[in-house]
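Progress against Task 2.4 (sequence-to-structure conversion) is shown through the following example record, which the project officer requested during the mid-term review.
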Amino acid sequence: MYTVLYTAQVLLLLVVAPVVATAADTAMAGRSLLEAASFWFVFFGGVRLLIAGLSQVVRPGFTVEEVLGQRRGNPGANYVVQELGFANIGLGLLGIIGPWLGWAPAGALALGAFLLLAGVRHVAKTGKAAKEWVATVTDLAFSVVLLVILALSLVR
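Structure tokens generated for the chain above:
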């Protein structure tokens, strides 16, 4: 059941919300599709990473056990997951605040590179639990979207 809720949350933040916000922004504010997509995909990617980071800092055991499928009894794993949470919080804040300051391309680069590398690392791991598969696929797909947005912004 929790996997379904986790997947729904991820899809809401990484697909539904940025697509709806981009369409509304383009229609109502008159921004170009690329400008609006750059803003909203970076913003909602930031929201996603901030939520993940807060969860990792407050409940590192959840990530260790439920997402990564590791057994209890390794306090070092909790420590590393909390540090990952700090990185997610920092990147999340960049994604949330950056577009408002005109830093959407920088946010797309930072979030896109982080998610791409995390996704590639997830792919290499064998025996993934369902939640880790969700993380793997969404990290890779969303990183591609962000990096394509960045590339289009740079050639514009």
